[in-house]
Structures are given as structure tokens and as C-alpha cells.
Specification:
This protein is α/β, with parallel strands linked by helices. About 40% of the residues lie in helices and about 20% in strands. The protein has 17 helices and 19 strands. Strands 8, 12, 13, 14, 15, 16, 17, 18 and 19 form a nine-stranded mixed sheet that branches. A six-stranded antiparallel barrel has the order 1-2-5-4-3-6. Strands 7-9 form a two-stranded antiparallel ribbon. A hairpin with an 8-residue loop joins strand 16 and strand 17. Helix 7 runs parallel beside helix 8 and helix 13 packs antiparallel against helix 14. The longest helix is centred in the middle third of the chain and has 20 residues. The N and C termini lie far apart (about 120 Å).
């Protein structure tokens, strides 16, 4: 009887289901994994897949289509290849690889896909943007005319960088390339520039030290850190710089100035070479694929100073590249030198002389930064390169033990003092007014005859003497105004007072 009483209800439920509209059919395109390599997979059965489309494997690993062939797809894996096996199903997502963008990423540590790596929970994003984007055209670009202060005397004075410039940091291992990039980020505490540090193929402990440095200085709150470490799949290292540039473009569209550091593109090129060889692409010079130049060119061409119609912001790129045995003519270094707007070369020879930062001003240059350099630096440090180059030539000549006249000895003393004045410890970016004060004292001979230890102490005294007397000078420097005679007299007076040099003891022609 109980079963009979429930039967009308069951029949009514069935009638409701029959009367409801039929569900919309869902088309799912499923492929199959044919082969798996170290970071790549070969997939069959997805003839309609698009280039750069995101695929999802049955194991949960995601991948990006890199090779399109009639009967197979070459897929770059964004997760552990050990989790993917032959015969596994693969689904199309009909979405091109993209990353989250927005203010919520500032202060966070993320991976190349925008997923958090700092344990602070989900990243809050306002939108997602494609990782690959077309570089702005010529009419969307403006002239590079504003300086980017690095806080490093050797760079701001002799190899200036402008907002919107692409300046290469190049040198052998352990010459201080990352230190220059990190110090530049730290110096942006004095500006409104937003920073993005993209670590590509770096060791985990090295990246952890950079993150801790940014956190201790408080600069992490104005920085996005993207990590694709050496323990991550090569696919993440390949897309990381493009993802970082996409995040920078969002802020540039909001009229913000963004600094992006790619540390480093040597590892990026090696990751791309590894993926290309596994995908059976024909190798070229040094086994790199033939499009390696285009891979970096289409990345760095997205940087620049943009017109108000194109957002009004700027993206300054500081790519890092590693050389071997000072070989600047190697394949990847020459490619990047030709793509960028200048290079900061760090010399092992200067490292052995304990000269940090080890910027070789004879090889370093900036193609556009001089037009964006602070006017005050142009006046004070205009002869810096000439003084150092003459000193280095005389220094080599003096090693032969030749007897030197008084003028030559004076030039040697002045050059040694100027080179010592360019020394700077790590994690100590110097404000512009303090840089000018030190450089003016060195170029005017106030450090002549001092030992290296005495020069360091003298520079500290000079820097500590900056006070209210130079407030007006600091304001004009911040406004990029030229210095007049009164400003230069004020700088010299403060330097002399700090060093105890009398007025009549100054000899500008020494």
C-alpha cells in the first residue's frame, strides 16, 4: 500500500522532467597524449586547436600549444611532466594563455601563471590579459625624456637610464648584475615607479634573498615578484617574461611608470632551446632555434614611453644576460645588445680590483638615456668618462716603472680618487643630491691623494653633510632643472666644510 501511495508523486516528478526544456548539448573536443618528454607532450586528435591555446590534461596539468602540425600538436607543459602519461585524455579550453592583472598583484609573489607563491591566499585580479600581445606601434610611442634614477653613481652619472628605455645589464657570473637591478628597484622608494622583478631560472635561495631584501626595505609593497625557478618546468620559464610584461602593460595603460627586471634572459633562451629541441625543431647556431632573436625582440619591443592616447605610462625594461669569459660577441648577448637601447657592462677585471659596482664605462653606453639624464648630472659629471679613460691609460703606462712628471702624477691621483668615489656598497642607493655632492668633490680634486679607505670615509662625511642648506638644490634636481652658479657654489661649500678643505685650497685645474 505504501508503494502505491508514493507512485503518483514519482510519476509527477517524471512528468516535470519530461516537460522541462532539454539541456543544451556541450561540445567537448578530446585528444590523446601520444608521447611525453621533459617539459613537453605530443598530442593527437585536436585538429582545431589554436596556437598558444591552453589545454587541460586528465591529470590536471595544463599546457600551451606551441607547435601546430596536421596530425599532432607540440604542447609545452606548465606542470610536472611526471604526472602526464601516454594515452591520457586532453581537452581544449578554447582560451589563449593569459594571466591575471590588477593592483591586487602588487606586493605579492606569484608564478608565471599569476598563481600565488607567498602563502597569502588567492590573488585578487581585476581582469585577465593575454600573455602574448602585439607591441605598440610607432605612433603610440613618445620620446624618452624623463630619467629613471637608479641610485648608483656610476650609472646615473655616466650611463643614464630613461623611463621607457631598454637597458641591458650584461656581464659574467658573480659580477653583480642582480645587485644593480635590485638596487634600482630599492631606489624607486623615492619615486612613484612600480617595479616588477621577474626571476627566470634562478636558484630558490637567490630569489629568496631578493624577496627578503625587498621586504626589509619596505619596497616589496610596491613590487610584483614573479618566480620561475630552476626547479620549475621549462614551460613556466618560457612564458614568465611575457606574463610579467603583460602585468606591466596594465599599469602603463593607467598612466603609471613601471620598471621590469628580467633576471635573466640567458636562462630564458636556454629554456626555449630545451623545449624546441624536444619538439624536434631544427637547431641553428649554438643549437638555438632560428627564431630565438624574434622571441626576445617581441618581448622587449613592448617596452617604451607611450603617448597620452596610448595610456600615457611607460615600461622600462632592464633585461639581464650572462656572458662567459667576457665574450660579448656570443650569440644571445649580441642579439640582446642589438635589440636594447644600450648596455651596462660589468667587468670581472674591476671585480678583481674590488670595484663595486663593477661598471666598465669604456664598454657601457646608453643610446637614449643622455637625453633623459638629470640636467644637473650633465654639468657635474660631463667629464667623468674622459677622466677615467685617461686615468686607465696612464695607470697601465705607470706599471712599467717609468718616471712620471708632476702633471701625470696629478692625473693619476685625480683618476684614482674619481674611481674610488664611484664605489658603492650593495643595497645602498644614493639620493641624487648626495651623488652630485660626492662627484663634484671628486672631480674638483677634494679626494686627491687620499687612500681608498680615506676616500670611503670622506664620502660618508660628505653624504652626511647634506642638510637644509641644499634643500633648494634637491628640489631643482627633482624638478630636472639645471644648476646655476649659486647652486654649484653651495655644493662646493658644503663639500669643503665636510672635508675641512679651505677655500683657497681648492684647485679646479689640478
Amino acid at each position: 500500500m505504501a508503494d502505491e501511495s508514493r507512485r503518483p508523486g514519482v510519476q509527477g516528478f517524471i512528468d516535470v522532467l519530461l516537460d522541462s526544456p532539454a539541456p543544451t548539448p556541450v561540445l567537448a573536443e578530446v585528444g590523446t597524449v601520444v608521447a611525453v618528454g621533459d617539459g613537453i607532450a605530443v598530442v593527437a586528435g585536436l585538429g582545431r586547436a589554436l596556437a598558444d591555446e591552453l589545454l587541460v590534461f586528465a591529470s590536471g596539468v595544463r599546457g600551451v600549444v606551441l607547435d601546430l602540425e596536421p596530425d599532432r600538436l607540440g604542447v609545452v607543459l606548465l606542470g610536472p611532466s611526471e604526472r602526464v602519461s601516454a594515452g591520457e585524455d586532453v581537452w581544449r579550453t578554447r582560451k589563449v594563455i593569459s594571466v591575471p592583472v590588477g593592483p591586487g598583484l602588487v606586493g605579492r609573489v606569484v608564478d608565471a601563471t599569476g598563481q600565488p607563491r607567498d602563502g597569502k591566499g588567492k590573488v585578487t585580479a581585476v581582469a585577465e590579459r593575454l600573455v602574448e600581445a602585439q607591441a605598440p606601434d610607432i605612433l603610440s610611442r613618445a620620446a624618452v625624456s624623463r630619467p629613471l634614477a637608479t641610485g648608483l653613481k656610476a650609472i646615473d652619472a655616466a650611463v643614464p637610464v630613461g623611463l621607457g628605455q631598454r637597458e641591458l645589464i650584461i656581464g659574467d657570473r658573480q659580477t653583480g648584475k642582480t645587485s644593480i637591478a635590485v638596487d634600482t628597484i630599492l631606489n624607486q622608494a623615492r619615486s612613484e615607479v612600480l617595479s616588477i622583478y621577474c626571476a627566470i631560472g634562478q636558484r630558490g635561495d637567490a630569489v629568496a634573498r631578493v624577496i627578503e631584501t625587498l621586504r626589509e626595505s619596505g619596497q616589496l609593497a610596491k613590487t610584483i615578484v614573479m618566480v620561475a625557478g630552476d626547479e620549475d618546468p621549462p614551460g613556466l620559464a618560457y612564458i614568465a617574461p611575457y606574463a610579467a610584461m603583460t602585468m606591466a602593460e596594465y599599469f602603463a595603460d593607467q598612466a603609471r611608470d613601471v620598471l621590469v627586471v628580467f633576471d635573466d634572459l640567458t636562462h630564458h633562451a636556454r629554456s626555449y632551446r630545451e623545449l624546441s629541441l624536444l619538439l624536434r625543431r631544427p637547431p641553428g647556431r649554438e643549437a638555438f632555434p632560428g627564431d630565438i632573436f624574434y622571441v626576445h625582440a617581441r618581448l622587449l619591443e613592448r617596452a617604451g614611453q607611450f603617448t597620452p592616447e596610448a595610456g600615457g605610462g611607460s615600461i622600462t625594461a632592464l633585461p639581464v644576460v650572462e656572458t662567459q669569459a667576457e665574450n660579448l660577441s656570443a650569440y644571445i648577448p649580441t642579439n640582446l645588445i642589438s635589440i636594447t637601447d644600450g648596455q651596462i657592462y660589468l667587468s670581472p677585471r674591476l671585480v678583481r680590483k674590488n670595484q663595486f659596482p663593477a661598471v666598465d664605462l669604456g664598454v657601457s653606453m646608453s643610446r637614449v638615456g643622455g637625453k633623459a639624464q638629470h640636467r644637473a648630472f650633465r654639468e657635474v659629471a660631463g667629464n667623468l668618462r674622459v677622466t677615467l679613460s685617461q686615468f686607465e691609460e696612464l695607470e697601465d703606462f705607470a706599471r712599467f716603472g717609468t718616471r712620471l712628471d708632476d702633471a701625470t702624477r696629478a692625473r693619476l691621483s685625480r683618476g684614482a680618487a674619481v674611481r674610488a668615489a664611484l664605489r658603492q656598497p650593495e643595497r645602498d642607493p644614493v639620493p641624487a643630491v648626495e651623488q652630485l655632492l660626492v662627484l663634484l668633490a671628486a672631480m674638483d680634486g677634494m679626494f686627491d691623494g687620499l687612500s681608498e679607505t680615506e676616500v670611503v670615509a670622506a664620502m660618508e662625511n660628505v653624504r652626511a653633510s647634506v642638510g637644509d642648506a641644499l634643500a633648494g638644490v634637491a628640489t631643482r634636481i627633482a624638478d630636472n632643472q639645471p644648476l646655476d652658479e649659486d647652486d654649484r657654489a653651495s655644493l662646493r661649500g658644503v663639500a669643503r666644510a665636510a672635508l675641512g678643505v679651505p677655500e683657497e685650497g681648492h684647485d679646479a685645474d689640478a
